Amino acid sequence: MNICVNSTFDCSIEDFQAMFDKFEEDFRKCASDWKISIVNDHEVIVLANVTDMDGLQAIMGSDEMTQWDEENNCVDRVYSLEKIN
User: Fold this and answer.
1) Domains in the chain and their CATH numbers?
2) Is the Cα torsion angle 10, 15, 21, 22 positive or negative in sign?
3) What does pTM read for this prediction?
4) What's the pLDDT tens digit per position in 4-27?
5) Taking Cα atoms as reference points, which of 6, 7, 9, 3 lies closest to residue 30?
């Protein structure tokens, strides 16, 4: 399933990237590909081809991730995408 995640946060882009890098091995287990686009200093858009939605939800709902979200005022808006032929 292709998804789009619009994330806003109070930390820097570098801090967001460091968090993402920390979880990259876990993301590889549930997504075959992804791209991160920087919108501004406190917002990114992630496009991902998720192959294991339960795995992704486990990562996003983990204690470590939810703590990071709270500490950085991170809000993720997740959308499913369908290809238009």
Assistant:
1) 2-81 (3.30.70.100)
2) negative
3) 0.89
4) 999 999 999 999 999 999 999 999
5) 3
